[in-house]
TrEMBL record:
<feature type="transmembrane region" description="Helical">
    <location>
        <begin position="143"/>
        <end position="164"/>
    </location>
</feature>
<feature type="transmembrane region" description="Helical">
    <location>
        <begin position="425"/>
        <end position="445"/>
    </location>
</feature>
<feature type="transmembrane region" description="Helical">
    <location>
        <begin position="110"/>
        <end position="131"/>
    </location>
</feature>
<keyword id="KW-1133">Transmembrane helix</keyword>
<feature type="transmembrane region" description="Helical">
    <location>
        <begin position="70"/>
        <end position="90"/>
    </location>
</feature>
<keyword id="KW-0812">Transmembrane</keyword>
<keyword id="KW-0472">Membrane</keyword>
<feature type="transmembrane region" description="Helical">
    <location>
        <begin position="216"/>
        <end position="232"/>
    </location>
</feature>
<feature type="transmembrane region" description="Helical">
    <location>
        <begin position="36"/>
        <end position="58"/>
    </location>
</feature>
<feature type="transmembrane region" description="Helical">
    <location>
        <begin position="286"/>
        <end position="309"/>
    </location>
</feature>
<dbReference type="InterPro" id="IPR051533">
    <property type="entry name" value="WaaL-like"/>
</dbReference>
<feature type="transmembrane region" description="Helical">
    <location>
        <begin position="262"/>
        <end position="279"/>
    </location>
</feature>
<feature type="transmembrane region" description="Helical">
    <location>
        <begin position="239"/>
        <end position="256"/>
    </location>
</feature>
<protein>
    <submittedName>
        <fullName>Uncharacterized protein</fullName>
    </submittedName>
</protein>
<feature type="transmembrane region" description="Helical">
    <location>
        <begin position="380"/>
        <end position="400"/>
    </location>
</feature>
Amino acid sequence: MTVAPALPRTGPAHGTRKPTTLPAWPVASILAFYPLWWALGLGVLIFAAMAVPMLFLLLRRRAAGRPLRLPPGFGWWALFLVAVVVSIGALGADPPGTVAEHATDRLTAVAYKLIMYLALTVLLVYAGNLTEVELPRRRLVKLLGWMFVVTVAGGVLGMVAGTFEFTSPVEMLLPPGVRNKGFVQSLVHPYAAQIMDLVGGEKPRPAAPWGYTNTWGNNFCLLLGWMVVAAWRSGRGKYKFAAVICLLVSIAPAVVSLNRGLWIGLGVLVIYVAARYVLAGKLWIIGVVTVAAAMLTVALVATPLGGVISARLDNGKSNGVRSFLVDRALDGFTGSPVIGYGGTRSTLGGRNSIAVGESAGCERCGNFTVGGNGQLWQLLYAHGTVGTVGYLGFFAYGLWRFRRDRSPIGVAGSAALVTSFSAMLWYNSLVTPLAFMVLAFALLWRNSIEGNEPTT
């Protein structure tokens, strides 16, 4: 009797198993369809929603035997996350000069921030573990460039239809007592602009699709470089022409936003990129910057936009409030310098008197948010020295680690991180600015592993 040979067994311990790949759709769909998420009322919530399948896919690939890479300097980021968690223990503290509340009253906002920090951590690891086959770097750059186009389109919408807003589907599903809260409204209620009185009379300041004018300006700086890289690396004249048109159109909302932080950020961006190219021996960048500056000057002189800038510079209504909040943040930091207070606090009254506070007739009177006027001040106040060192250490290490990358991705990615360091003096980073920062880090990281992006 002949016995048939046994068939070979397959599985983790017998034979080989095809490695599990990571699909690109969790990252690509966030960016490609962000206007849709915004209109649906998901907006920044899409980052937390997509973190769930991303985490599942990462764990599945790890279970299949494929190792997961962690970004260089991840220990710094882990230190930051630990500080965020540990500092929650100080939520019940009421620093001098702040409104007394129970720790549970502050827990919702703190839990939201923690969830978003964890979601963006998953995004960082996921985007960094994608291969050139799964999600080409060039495609990710194009998606980030698309986000700049979306930002400009939202800015134009805010200019021409400043009062435009609508009730989103997600908003409709929420109970009235929930959806009418200011914090919830900022997440699920789409609107084109914030209406503010900064230069005499209430005027719209572009915010769509990022919720706040300051976030709009922050993202403008973080994404501009990717649009330029995507257009010029395409090798197609029509994309370059479209990019130039987009840049020209972007001038108007950038000026009308009255966003001085944006203007400073653009200056930092141009100086940094020009310096990188000069050090690389590409002196032609000096001519490009000179011509661009001359064209911008002509545009500002020949149009009313120049007057808008002058009016904004002559009306520094927010300077006193910012100075007041920085002082309160530093005073609070000295009271809990190691782990901070776990979150922000509301001041007693305004900067001139504790008797000036929020009321039905003046919702913006007093009760300012300590730590709400810049990521640096929030880090120091909410998470102390440990959290601040961990957060800054991670991105600073990335800048140092990838400093020799002179490719378009290397320059654009490091430029985004450099502008984020200047922006943290007046902008908070959560959620979308930090998302674009970790994607810039992921591209720099992948570039260091896979080499300069392909040219064809």
